[in-house]
Amino acid sequence: MSIGTTLAAARETAGLSLEDVAAATRIRRTLIMNIEDDDYSACGGDFYARGHLRNIAVAVGLDPAPLLAEFDAARPEAAPARATEVFEAETTTWKERRGGPNWSAAMAAALVLVIAYGLVQAFSGSGGGGHDVADPGRTTSAPPSTSAPASPTPSDDDSAVAQAPRGKVTVAVLATDRSWVQVTTTSGQELFQGLLQPGQEKTFTDKTRLKLVIGNAGGVELTVNGSAIGAPGRRGQVARVQFTPEDPAAG
């Protein structure tokens, strides 16, 4: 009996419909049908196919280990997949943050404005023929101090921007509902991939960037660099987000 036939028989024995398994695993109904027909072409690669087999087996009451061993034995040289579109209800996704605020550019712009303001004040104050008589109708301003420009800071001094470490990005994921989560770094290293149950919490850290794919966006709460930003989307929605050390919150 093939893997797909075994899964289909177990599902029917458990009295579950394809819709029941899709709701429990967040895997599309059509993809479950394909897997029961031993067709893994729409899974996005053997890596993701193994994850679907494991989740479906658990949902229908089977031990996934023998099925995964049989799957691996038939694919000894399978290459890892790079991307997939495997979850239901992915009509819209939460907007990803493409990068943090560019503080270097802001500092340069502020410095230029302060220098320009100082030059205007200096020339306007020295154009009266060299006499020192003050105008009684106004106050005389001293030339701006060259130490005045400072690096621009956020208006909220007690915000998480000030609290978060600048040398790394830290993301904590707290599951409020069952949700599949994948976390990778910029280099492609996978830090985690699997199902989080309600109440489970995972924390991930990287020097430059963390990328997350969340199968049930409304079922998790995110904390980025010490700042709680809540759920990245609605229940049943897939969210793809990424964060850097300069991200106190999602964009």
Distance separating the two termini = 49 Å
Overall average residue pLDDT: 77
Q: What is the rounded Rg? A: 28 Å
Please give the order of strands in the largest beta sheet.
4-1-6-7
Tell me the number of helical segments per DSSP (H or I, 4 or more residues long).
7
Beta-strand proportion: 15-25%
Question: What structural category characterises the helix and strand content?
Answer: alpha+beta
Q: Could you give the order of the helices and strands?
A: HHHHHHHEEEEEEEE
In the CATH hierarchy, the third-tier topology of the domain at 161-243 is known as Immunoglobulin-like
Q: Report the principal-axis shape.
A: elongated
Helix content range: 25-40%
DSSP strand count = 8
CATH architecture of the domain at 161-243: Sandwich
User: What is the C-level CATH assignment of the domain at 161-243?
Assistant: Mainly Beta
Identify low-pLDDT runs.
78-98, 126-142, 154-165
Tell me the major beta sheet. Answer: 4 strands, antiparallel
Molecular structure report:
With 251 residues, the chain is α+β, with helices and mostly antiparallel strands. The protein contains seven helices and eight strands; from the N terminus they run H-H-H-H-H-H-H-E-E-E-E-E-E-E-E. Among the domains are: 71 residues, 434 Repressor (Amino-terminal Domain), CATH 1.10.260; 83 residues, Sandwich (Immunoglobulin-like), CATH 2.60.40. Strands 4-1-6-7 form a four-stranded antiparallel beta sheet, with no helix packed on it. A four-stranded antiparallel beta sheet has the order 3-2-5-8, with no helix packed on it. About 20% of the residues have low confidence.
